[in-house]
Design a protein that fits this description.
single chain; 424 residues; alpha+beta; Rieske Iron-sulfur Protein; Naphthalene 1,2-dioxygenase Alpha Subunit, Chain A, domain 1; seven-stranded antiparallel β-sheet; 10 helices; 22% strand; disordered C terminus; binds FE2/S2 (inorganic) cluster; binds fe (ii) ion
């Protein structure tokens, strides 16, 4: 009799491929910590785990409510390898569905957005209403044990914050606003759902999605990479804001001679957005919201980046610009300078992210160290590392004030190290 060969143990996707030991160096105080292990930017099994456990495991931003406002209006949202349908029902309710026919599995909707009276599969024409219920298909009357009511589209949990649509494929995540944390309170003086998109640009970036989120979290690179941005909001200006929950919030200051981030630094006649305080007029707020939304609120416009991982080394970044509809209605409304500014800045960022992606693949590279301008990068990496470790420990965020002196940072770090030693 042949021996049965020992089968390699199949790892369940719920089991992390990155051990607590492998990320122990990340989970130290910032001045001692190492950046993420290089392989987490390249390995397919790490990527698959992130997609399953994180992107399909809780709240992920998926689009804007303005693209599904009236009954039948829908858009498709790429989340965790799916192409979800987000649609407004005849009852006015926003719903999410898997874009998969229950018959033989064809994709139902191919157009990225539109308005439909119902969902009709292009293959054998099974029809679902806007609430996802299947109408009795032709030639199924004689089927045994087949109730069309049990064969509706598979629903996806949906909620919204400030006009941003979120989906939870797991169906078990905490309530959305609890998940989002401080960002909800930080921006509740605004009605950002009322803004409308002026422009969308998609970028196919040859870098891991985490490199892109990390890049957004720091301006250490700004003097060299973004001279145009650094001229208007100096890289060491601004401060961090309360950041419990999924978002890491901060702002940078617009120098007095400028109005906003645009090629000229002028707002081209646009009024500050409704709800803005005097302080807000001179700030650009930046929030990275776990896992895939970069939220940038300027005095006169909102910019969102949606970060969609495609492969370990490839990410779709969708950048959108939103303005107050009252400003957009003015005959001289011209967002071109703001759009050009960020299109330029985006491309500068993607270039260095792509360089990082290539370099971290080198056999010569070992995980580097954080500068004192990168405690937010470390903050995001801790969210990543804690999730890889999956040991129930949430490492405290050690973000330091940008104004804190080097001596004070060292002192704080020393105390943190002593605290760790005492705990060990
Ligand atoms: S696969 Fe959709 S109707 Fe057959
Ligand atoms: Fe940048």
């Amino acid at each position: 009799m042949l021996d049965t060969p020992a089968m390699p143990r199949q790892r369940l996707l719920s089991e992390s491929p990155v051990s607590p030991e492998e990320v122990a160096g990340v989970r130290r105080p910032t001045v001692e910590a190492s950046v993420l292990p290089p392989r987490t930017f390249h390995d397919q099994d790490v990527f698959d785990y992130e997609q399953e456990a994180w992107f399909a495991g809780g709240w992920v931003s998926a689009g804007r409510e303005e693209d599904a406002l009236v009954p039948g209006q829908y858009f498709l949202a790429p989340v965790a390898g799916e192409n979800l349908i987000i649609a407004r029902g005849n009852d006015g309710q926003l719903r999410g569905f898997f874009n998969v026919c229950r018959h033989r599995g064809a994709t139902i909707l191919e157009e990225e957005s539109g308005t439909v009276p119902r969902f009709q599969c292009p293959y054998h024409a099974w029809v679902y209403n806007l609430e996802g219920t299947l109408k009795q298909p032709r030639h199924t009357e004689l089927l045994v044990d087949f109730d069309p009511d049990e064969w509706g589209l598979i629903p996806v949990r949906v909620d919204t914050w400030q006009g941003i649509v979120y989906v939870d494929l797991s169906g078990t995540a905490e309530p959305l606003h609890d998940f989002l944390g401080d960002i909800v309170r930080e921006f509740d003086r605004f009605d950002l759902g009322a803004l409308r998109r002026a422009r969308r640009i998609d970028y196919d970036v040859k870098a891991n999605w985490k490199a892109i989120v990390e890049n957004y979290q720091e301006c250490y690179h700004c003097p060299g990479v973004h001279p145009q941005l650094n001229r208007i909001t100096p890289y060491n200006s601004g401060s961090y804001l309360p950041s419990t929950g999924a978002a890491m919030n901060s702002y940078m200051e617009v120098l007095p001679q400028f109005e906003t981030l645009s090629m000229t630094g002028a707002a081209d006649g646009r009024e500050p957005m409704p709800g803005m305080t005097e302080d807000d007029h001179k700030r650009v707020y930046y929030s990275a919201v776990w896992p895939n939304l970069l939220f940038s609120l300027h005095p006169d416009y909102l910019m969102l980046h949606w970060v969609t991982p495609l492969e370990p080394g490839r990410t779709l970044v969708r950048c959108e610009w939103y303005f107050d509809p009252a400003e957009m209605a003015k005959p001289d409304f011209n967002p071109a300078e703001a759009i050009e500014f960020w299109d330029l800045t985006n491309r500068q960022d993607w270039h260095v992210c792509e360089l990082q992606q290539r370099g971290t693949k080198s056999r010569a590279y070992t995980a580097g160290r954080y500068s004192s301008m990168e405690s937010s990068v470390h903050g995001f990496d801790l969210m990543v590392a804690d999730r890889y470790a999956n040991d129930g420990v949430t490492t405290p965020q050690g973000r330091v004030s940008k104004q804190e002196s080097t001596a004070a940072i060292k002192d704080r770090a020393k105390r943190a190290v002593q605290g760790n030693a005492a705990a060990d």
